[in-house]
Design goal:
Oligomer: single chain
Strand content: under 5%
Helix content: 55-70%
Distance between the termini: 29 Å
Largest sheet: none
Shape: globular
């Protein structure tokens, strides 16, 4: 159901555990990278994500849970790249930015 609602309810325990200032900064930068991406298919999003992480010396785990929470409000669900492409570029970026606004200055 979360895939079809824009008013995402965030798992508070998940946010408390996985969202801090660093995670929020990473998500903001990632949203900007998604917004500027030349394409938005599954392979393109995966390649962009790998390049984004590599350029920062990070592993997928540093982005995955905060990103999943931002997109769906949950810690579990469909694959992240599939979820991103389901929402399409504008929808995915909007969900990330809404989550960041909702989470404010936590952590």
């Amino acid at each position: 159901r979360y895939l079809f609602r824009e008013d995402v309810a965030y798992d508070e325990a998940g946010v408390a555990k996985h969202v801090d200032a660093d995670a929020r900064a990473r998500l903001a930068d990632y949203a900007d990278a998604l917004h500027a991406a030349p394409g938005f298919d599954l392979e393109g999003v995966e390649a962009l994500t790998q390049a984004f992480l590599a350029s920062r010396g990070l592993k997928f785990k540093h982005l995955a849970q905060p990103l999943r929470l931002a997109l769906t409000g949950r810690l579990q669900g469909a694959g992240l790249f599939e979820t991103l492409t389901f929402f399409e570029r504008d929808g995915a970026v909007a969900r990330i930015r809404r989550a960041l606004a909702a989470w404010g200055s936590r952590g």
